[in-house]
Amino acid sequence: MEQSFLAWLRGRQANLPQVKVGIGDDGAVFVPQAGKELVLASDGIVDGVDFLADQHSLAEVGRKAVAINLSDLAAMGAEPAAILVNLSLPTRSATEIAAACYEGILEICDQYQVAIAGGDITVYDGPLAISVTAIGHVESGQAWLRSGAKEGDSVLVSGAFGGSLLGRHLRFTPRIEFARRLRAIGGVHAAMDVSDGLSLDLDRLCASSALGVELDMEAIPIHPDAGPWAEQQGGTLLEHALGDGEDFELIVAMEPKAAQRAMAAEAALPEDVRVPLTKIGTLTGRTGLWMQKTGKLERLSPSGYIHGEQ
Amino acid sequence: MEQSFLAWLRGRQANLPQVKVGIGDDGAVFVPQAGKELVLASDGIVDGVDFLADQHSLAEVGRKAVAINLSDLAAMGAEPAAILVNLSLPTRSATEIAAACYEGILEICDQYQVAIAGGDITVYDGPLAISVTAIGHVESGQAWLRSGAKEGDSVLVSGAFGGSLLGRHLRFTPRIEFARRLRAIGGVHAAMDVSDGLSLDLDRLCASSALGVELDMEAIPIHPDAGPWAEQQGGTLLEHALGDGEDFELIVAMEPKAAQRAMAAEAALPEDVRVPLTKIGTLTGRTGLWMQKTGKLERLSPSGYIHGEQ
């Protein structure tokens, strides 16, 4: 099926200038923008771990495989340009599954003008798995690293947290356009996206920058989905916001005045465009996560999803 | 295991200038060479389809996952620069399997000075699968496409064909250095690597260029492994050379005088460096594969491995 499927895929794709030669040769020819650096991200999802093929729409599954990688590019401050997709398909109904997944892949690629530069397909005796590599452009030296945060930086988060497994983990908006607006404002020292849990990922950002954070626990934006999810699973809303993960929102460490400007600018946007932007803490020299509690600082243990622990 | 494993991997890797920020952030920062284009290739291998984890050395399996992608870069005339690796690991012994595969991945990356720019790991209820994306540099406009062959071009092949499943499919040399020498000679109009079968892949190259080929069947180089493999499987040596696949040699369409120069230059190299280079036919305007037989042309049906047919 591979050859005929790839021919179908070629026909469905828009021609984009960044890819001179696309699917159908031994490799694709990609034209990088002069003077820019590239950000490369690669992440896969697997049936039974990251989604459930018998419950979720396969178009949404395909979309998610791309979106998690676009989220990584956004977290690096990069503009997406191209992806490569490796599909591992269970033998039964392989072609139908591939076509259904690609509906979502094509849709999100069209939305963000991302070229599909490669598409390998394997049919095997195993669960549906989609592995995606994404390539984006960033101005030379301007990528947002986890390690760049400075003491005194404001810690901002986009959106709200918790209960993403109710469905948002499949349908979230990768923060590409929001990251573009932050770049225009400037003053971003570090960023990352929340895949494993707000507190766990924030702890990693702090560790990369050899800093800690003093959190304003009451400011942490809790998603409406956290309520019904907590009712199903137990635990408090805050625990779910801190540890559920798969929110795919951005944590940003920003120079405090730029952070103020960013929040004001975002709030001034039309409701259908703006992304809620909240200051949840300040970076400090004392490593670890800290919270104010009855007048003194207490240490918060990071919680979230640790890959490869089952 | 993912975080600690990736930390181990970071420590094992050489620092290479093309990757400014490697594993450990949301993405890697890659510095493209000024004025060049990039070739992107992505291909995966799966236990039970492309190797047998209980029979093959996992280091060789890891090496193969990289080598098949380097072979694609060589077939495009590109110099490899970086790879990204997605490992899907069966739950049992996940860490040991990952470490064993990476022995081979690190070895071949070291050999060709390729940076590991990303390394995602998923533990799941399925067979070992390794998906690799490779990135290489090529002079602007100089990538070797399947579609560039011209009528009258000589068709050359590197190496010899058949019986690769006896073990060569795991241990082949991707033709990176050979491709570099061909670039220096010039006159290459089209190229591809043989993964699915010499006749099937040659037929694809011809179709992409809207040409056909007149083959000199006696010139087709048959690998010594074709003999024992034919004894096991039945069939003639030539049938195995034409259809076995996984040889990962190059088919090259070259301007005839440049082809002569290339064969002479290769033959003049020391034995441990040179790659056998053989002219097996000439490209013609009449599409399809053709062979001389008792004085007239007969059509040859392409044979090989069709992906996704089981």
Automatic annotation (TrEMBL), chains A, B:
Which reaction is this enzyme known to catalyze? Answer: thiamine phosphate + ATP = thiamine diphosphate + ADP
Q: Where does Mg(2+) 5 bind?
A: D196
Q: Which residues bind substrate?
A: D50, E246, Y305
Highest taxon of source? Bacteria
Locate the residues binding Mg(2+) 4.
D26, D72
Annotated residues for binding of ATP: Y102, G119, D120, R146, S195
Q: What Gene3D superfamilies does the database record attribute to this sequence?
A: PurM-like C-terminal domain, PurM-like, N-terminal domain
Q: Which residues form the PurM-like N-terminal domain?
A: 24-138
The Enzyme Commission number assigned here is 2.7.4.16
GO BP: thiamine biosynthetic process; thiamine diphosphate biosynthetic process
**Annotated signal peptide:** none
PurM-like C-terminal domain boundaries? 149-286
Where does the chain bind Mg(2+) 2?
Answer: D43, D72
Coiled coil residues, start to end: none
Q: Which positions are annotated as binding Mg(2+) 3?
A: D26, D72, D193
Entry keyword annotation includes Plastid: no
Pathway(s) per entry: Cofactor biosynthesis; thiamine diphosphate biosynthesis; thiamine diphosphate from thiamine phosphate: step 1/1
Additional observations: Reaction mechanism of ThiL seems to utilize a direct, inline transfer of the gamma-phosphate of ATP to TMP rather than a phosphorylated enzyme intermediate.
Query: What does the UniProt record say this protein does?
Result: Catalyzes the ATP-dependent phosphorylation of thiamine-monophosphate (TMP) to form thiamine-pyrophosphate (TPP), the active form of vitamin B1.
- Listed PANTHER family: THIAMINE-MONOPHOSPHATE KINASE
Know the name of this protein? Answer: Thiamine-monophosphate kinase
